[in-house]
Amino acid sequence: MELDMMTSTFLDLRNKLHRIALRYLQSDEDAQDVLQDTWLKLSDKSDVESTSEAMNKLVVVLRNICIDRLRKARTIPIDSINSNDVPQYSMVTEDIERLEQLLQQQLTPLQRQIFTLVTHDGFDYEQIANKLSMSVEAVRMNMSRIRKKIRETLKKLDQ
Question: Is 82 inside any structural domain?
Fold first, then answer.
């Protein structure tokens, strides 16, 4: 029985592919699974013209499957997250009031108005631009400056 080029290359490189998968996954069982998945993905695609092309396809598919497995292992289902374990950022009401007072002193009247429309009233930039008869870019620029001042003010509060 004559083997096609993909099959013969896979059989020749099986041990080497296993070592590559083992290096990625650190588990012999997972490495075996990835090796099998690699073969299943490429077994019906025997349209390779050379051994080097088959070898390249095998290594690339194996590496991609290993990376997918590592990513999947890193993700945590949202149902398993305990909300008590998640760090919460909480500001004391005095800090919030102090932040707002500092911002009121540092912001121009136009910036205060834009900030209020965005944060308290929930307007988007286009609505604010129409309401204040200005361009959307001008609103974006003002919001960028406002956020910069907020960061600077928060740094002052932390010190």
Answer: no
Which residues are within 8 A (CB) of 5 and not within 5 positions of it... i.e. 6 or more apart? 46, 48, 49, 50, 51, 54
Give the predicted TM-score (pTM) of the model. Answer: 0.48
Cβ–Cβ < 8 Å for 159, 101: no
Same domain, 65 and 98: no
Last residue of a domain, one of 52, 77, 102: 77
Q: What is the pLDDT of residues 32-91, one digit of tens each?
A: 999 999 988 887 766 788 888 888 889 999 999 998 888 887 766 666 666 565 555 555
Model pLDDT, residue 85? 57
Per the structure, the count of domains in the chain is 2
* H runs (alpha helix) in 1-159: 5-25, 28-42, 51-74, 93-106, 109-119, 125-132, 136-158
Using alpha carbons only, give the angle 53, 56, 57 rounded to the nearest 5 degrees: 85
